[in-house]
Design goal:
The protein has helices spanning 2-10, 15-92, 101-113, 119-122. The protein has 134 residues and is mainly alpha-helical.
Length: 134
């Protein structure tokens, strides 16, 4: 504190004001230092909390990704089995049966909606599955 009073004396501050003004300046300086130290600690603390949160979230996301990958494999296997059953049912269906035109057209439209156009649905007998080149 004596160096603050000496600086104030060099600046020409009256002697009656030097000591109280020096005390105020010292307290103000300490307060600023405390606020700065607290601010730095708070920033470091917040960064650590955020890092812990991000790590925990990434661990949970990794577990969810592993679960999703397993579910995708299961879905692919189930879809393949269903597709195989559908093909077998079509291949094992009795030959020579006929559908009435409305049922045939409905079946062809359902297949088109699924993105499949078998040869029987490409003919002009069910409205055609492809546009003509006119």
């Amino acid at each position: 504190m004596s160096w603050i009073v000496a600086v104030l004396a060099r600046w020409g501050v009256p002697e009656a004001v030097r000591r109280p003004l020096g005390t105020v300046l010292l307290v103000l300086t300490l307060a600023i230092a405390v606020v700065a130290a607290w601010s730095l600690w708070l920033r470091a603390h917040d960064a650590a909390v955020i890092e812990r949160h991000d790590t925990a979230r990434e661990v949970e996301a990794g577990a969810a990704r592993e679960t999703a990958a397993g579910e995708r494999v299961d879905d692919a296997l189930r879809n393949e089995a269903n597709e195989r059953k559908n093909r077998e049912a079509i291949d094992n269906a009795p030959k020579g049966g006929t559908l009435d035109p409305a049922a045939h057209a409905l079946a062809c439209q359902r297949l088109r909606n699924l993105g499949r156009i078998p040869a029987a649905c490409r003919s002009s007998s069910c409205g055609g599955g492809e546009a003509s080149a006119e």
